Each structure stands twice: as structure tokens, then as C-alpha cells.
Amino acid sequence: MPKVTQAHRDARRRQILDAARTVFAEKGFAQSSTGDIVARSGLSAGALYHYFPSKDHLIQAVCEDAIHTALDDVTSSSLPESPERVHGTGDGREHARLMAQIWGEAAVSPRLAERVRHHLATAHAKATDLIRVERTVHGVPADRDATGTAHVLLALLTGYTLRLAMGDEESPDAFVRAIDTIIKTP
Fold it and tell me: What is the model's pTM?
């Protein structure tokens, strides 16, 4: 029997996470079954349980992956373009629906809330640094409450994500202009 490589195991795990992410975004955590995820992944139930011993473990892994990706995306390179990255490709609602569920679950799951707070703290630090850089580039004093501005920016992006999750068709353009104004206002 050929030896299974780490790359193969990583690819199968990613395949399950991607399938679970799609199913959770469509149905929610409570209404999704492992059978739904198995069907979406095209793998067997045994494969799913090999990587994730329970639905709760899978939910935690999807949440961790989604939070990390989302907060990393919105605090990379250009803050004013963050709403466009939140919106993503297509209608952007799959990611937004998943994030709305994660925030709701974090409200009742201390373990998940701790992970969300950790990622938010990291995103906040990155956003603060990016705000200082943007302000310096535009001749605005870099130290002018960049920390508070980062809190406002992350709250604005959370609100935009929730609106998108609920089907709001608002273009990210207005949010891009608002972020640009917040960053560049002395």
C-alpha cells in the first residue's frame, strides 16, 4: 500500500474544511449535518471523522480558519479597500453569512470567543500600524489616535459584513470612501 504523504493529508483536510464552510454558510451550524458535509466534500464519513472526531471539532476548525482568513484579508496592505475584500467575489454573501454565524456562536461559546478576541487583537494591531502608515503618507499626524481609529474601522467592517450577510446589496464603494475619510481626517 502506498504511503500517504503529508501534502495529501493536508489536501483532504482542506477539502473537508472547504465543504463544511460552504454547508455552514448555506444552512447554519445547527441545521448542518455531517452527512451534508460528507456529500459536499465527495469523501467518506470515515475520512471526515479521521480528520475531525466530531461536528464540534469541525465547527471550531472552520471558525478558526474563517476568522484568521477574514481578519488577515481586511488588514492587509490597503485599509480603504477592506470592504471590497470583505465583499470578495460573487455576491460575497457566503463568507458574510459564515462570519455572522461565527460571531453569534462566539457569544455563547467561551472557547470560540477567546479565539475571536485573539484574532481581533492581532487584526487591531495590524490595522493600527496600517493607519499610522496611511496617515504618514497623506501628511496626517500618525499618532492621532490610530488605536481608536482601528477599533472604529474593525467595527465598521463587522457592520458591513453583517449587512452583506442579511442580503444588503450595498456596494462597498460608500464604505471605502468612509474608511478613507476616517483614516485621512486630522
Answer: 0.79
